[in-house]
Amino acid sequence: MWGITLALVLTLVGGQESSYAPDFTGSKTFVYNYEGLILSGLPEKGCNRAGVKLKCKVEINSAGPKLCLLRIHTLDVEEYNGVWPKDPFTRSFRLTQVLGAQLVKPIRFEYSSGQVGNIYTADDVSSLVVNIVRGILNILQLSIKRTQNTYSFQEFGIAGICHTNYIIQQDKKENQILVTKSKDLHSCQDKVQRITGNAYAQTCSGCDQRNKTDRAFSTHNYKIKSTRSGTVILQADSQEVHQFTPFNEMEAAVVMEARQKLVLAEVRKDTTSTPEPELQNRGSLRYHFASELLQTPIQLLKTKNAGNQIIKTLQQLAENMQDSAVKDAPAKYLELVQLLRAATYENIDSVWKQFSSRSEYRRWILDAIPAIGSPMALKFLRHYIKRAELTDFEAAQAVLVGLHLIKADHDAVAEAAMLLKETNARHTPTLYKVTVLTYGSLLQRHCISTDVCTEAALQPLHDLALDALSSGNEGDMTLSLKAIGNAGQPASIKLIQKFLPGFLHRASQLPHSIQVDAVMALRNIAKNDRRRVQDILMQLFANHKVNAEVRMVASVVLVETKPTPALLINMANVALTDTNLQVASFTYSQLKALSTSQAPDLYTVAAASNIALKLLNPKLGWLSYRYSKNLRYDTFTDAIMSGFAANLFAINNAATTLPTAFISNIKAYFLGATTDLFEVGLRAEGLQEVIMKKHLDNWSSRAQGGNEIRDILKKLSEWKALPTNEPLASAYLKLFGQEIFFAKINKDSIKRAVEVFYKPEEQLPKLGDLLRSLQQSLDGHWTKPLLSTEVRHIVPTCVGLPIEKSMYYVSVTSAAINARVQILPSPSSDFSLSQLFDSKIKLHSKMSLSFAKDLIMFIGLNTHLIQAGMELQAKVHAMFPVNIAAAVNIKEKNFKIDIVPCHQESEIMSVRVKAYSVTRNVEDLAAAKIIPVVPSESIPNLWKEGFNSGEKLTGDHSENTGSFPSEFLSKEKSYSAEEPLHYPAPAADSRCAKARQFGFEVCLEKTSANAGFIKNSLLYFLIGGHTTEVSFKPVRTESTIEKIQIEFQAGPRAAEKMVHLVDLDEIEDENDEMETPLHHHALGKLKRILSGQNETWSKLPFTWWSGMCDSEGGGETISAVQEYGGLAVDIA
């Protein structure tokens, strides 16, 4: 009986709670006016913003139990790009036709108790249109509880399952129910978003506590009326605000706003019955990503014939980049990449077969294909590597870039595994090494995006490590451990322990360099399983039997894991009783460096380091630099929420005074994340042992005369006592925490290098071809484009359209050279490089090094049909032309350079930064509108207007002045509504530094106009337009300067070989014949210098001499000679 009563009560309560839920059952059709708006830009009125508005009629009626039918008609799509809210919207007829043709098709959706279920549409309706429908239906998603006036819970919606707060009020006078719900879009259990390109960055926990780079909230207001026939929504308003700033959010931010309005227009009886078409289930209310993942936000292309468009773009790049990198080359290269992404494999293969024989086109294709970022690119590379149509260098650089840029999904991993097998079978060590390392990097990004990283993906690396361990192959041990370290997966911990002393008996017999590599492999694993890695490292550090270098490297990695205060105290206790002063000194310097750290993520570690230092003897800090040290410098500025940390680790052993290893790295803090920018490591323990055994004794005494380099090479070739496989030195390079390169030098490496100098030309055909081409005249051109950064963060809005924050960094570097070399005496048939030391070499060359770099940030709406947002462009262009002639005589230790001076004005470098408001429409690309965010003209000031919640969003200009809430408006300046807002004129500055002696001047010109007058913040000072140009300009001189000559003379009595003594009396006699006062002054001063009358000059440790000579063109030159300990320099 009790159970029946409880069930009855729950039924009644449930009925009461659902009575406020909208009900579309019955034979009525509810007709609504719908408007959706998205805007992006600065929050202040009077600045340019960009956006899109959708207007339509929405009809909803019943289609069965818990089913409703949705019809959309009278669609109108409008674009906005102008001064907000002054300028009107512009109707887009073509977009209206394209979207309207799909939206008019009937849509069915499940609806019960205010909850939207599955959505059904025709199969040919695009995902973009379905998402717009989801935005409309998201308004109907209501969870109303009649028994509570306010409550919070996790509600399902278009953006995922997010924290939502409800407030229920009754308006008895109007007989209405007022519902307000607010969502924190950053407090979601299942947030809908896509983040690409930042897999190598880690969240900065301390930064996140101080500042949020982006926030997002939404508010929904409903007017609901309950009648006898059911509950109906009279009006619904939604407003969603996303704000973003790369700096401190309290200063300023860019705002992206989405609004919706749904107003009941009429209710009519549904008297007609239409046959229900065949509809497909398109999923729930949750947003589905589609074409926005393929569409770059900074370009909009309409792809009709991808193959022809690729060829046309290739021709433009190859023909326009013959001499230098033009300013729009990065944009054109990005266009090529986007076309390749839209093409099929057959298109790309056809283009390659057509142009692979032409070097210019071939380079552009091979540099663009890796940037596609899909398995198709790897398939292409694997196919042509297998057919041996790519050189080792071409294949290595393409694989390196391709595997780092590819989207790390299951298909990419499978294709990369096949590529790994192919490169191993080709027996090319460099290509195989690059492939193994980048395969590990691919696995790290793949395992971040999936819940479970399969053992099968890691198996190739594990097999390589186990095979190398069993066979004793040190090269493969190093390679596999570095690749496993790149992957950074906890599943590899047990394997790594087999290379660590104290965990496996055989591991202590491995070379110390292998043990160090195993410790370093734990660094990335610690990001996923910090506790286990800390336990392993602490065991190594505390084990006094382990090699000191391995213990110190373990200490470096242990501190990077941000240990707890207790663990840091234990490290100090170990160092306190350690008999190895190298380890004790290193630990003390580490803790001391950390104790003063300003890094936000190391606040707890810094505090604990201060305590740990008190346990150690301060005398450890007084040890000299022959003991191992850690030097650290870091800084962090709250105003810009950015900083960096630089570390230098000098690791030594007791046998030598010079460090045996160096590790240097730089970490950056920006946008709430930390990134290991780069790390360089050098290790030279084997080389030090050679030096200690006096393999290089008395080199200086045996290398007298002019053949030092040849004698050194000869000595290197006689190192017969060195072990063949033992490395003498090694180095590695890491970018963004991933090792991309390492090399080891051993006896064989030195032997091969020496042989290059002594082998005759016929045994080195490539060297012979190079020498012959240089003597005849070498024309070369090299171009390297690179899409090095593509970071995107895409989220849906309540309107159903996506907005994103993205950053692109594209660079194109070009070098052109025309060179001719003359070698005297002429090389014979058995000529070798060593004979160059006895030859005279003359070089004539014209070179040009240029680059164009684009850094672009986009914030706003991005789809394959339309783009609207704010774009910040930073463009750098530089060009350095050089026209020189050089003469080298190694035997006489003489080097002379003739430089042609500047004869016409030329721009050397330009930097342009500008913020634009952008709208692009794929149906009318010619009408794309790009205007500055900060207008140049004066406009009426509307800053003090408040937000009118009842404001209508219509296309008419007088009704089209929707605004942001007052809390988003600037409080720093106030103007009357009638007073015009005058934008300040751009600031300009121009300065020149003249070098009359060389006939040119260097000029710096700057102009700047920004939004700093609106708000005093770094973001607003950045937004606007900034230009900096550096140029060379010729300067008129008394006589023509035909060339600038610089001569170096080394060896004993170097100055005497260059300076011809001048009779001061003769100069005085000739002084009267000089034609200009400048000559009188110069020679008079020169006479005082040479005669020692000027005390200042006479005390300098070098000799000055000056004389006059006739140049080939009849001009005059003044020479100056400086002597520094056996090196004389002459500048004429």
Automatic annotation (TrEMBL):
Q: Which UniProt keywords apply?
A: Disulfide bond, Glycoprotein, Phosphoprotein, Signal, Storage protein
SUPFAM superfamilies, alphabetically? Lipovitellin-phosvitin complex, beta-sheet shell regions (SSF56968), Lipovitellin-phosvitin complex, superhelical domain (SSF48431)
| GO molecular function annotation | lipid transporter activity; nutrient reservoir activity
Q: Which residues form the Vitellogenin domain?
A: 24-662
Q: Which cysteines in this chain are paired by disulphide bridges?
A: 162-188, 204-207
Gene Ontology annotations of biological process type:
cellular response to estrogen stimulus; response to estradiol
InterPro entries cross-referenced by the UniProt entry? Lipid_transp_b-sht_shell, Lipovitellin_superhlx_dom, Vitellinogen_b-sht_N, Vitellinogen_open_b-sht, Vitellinogen_open_b-sht_sub1, Vitellogenin/Apolipophorin, Vitellogenin_N
- Where does the record place a coiled coil? none
Q: Reply yes or no: does the keyword Metal-binding apply.
A: no
Signal peptide position in this chain? Answer: 1-15
Name this polypeptide is given: Vitellogenin domain-containing protein
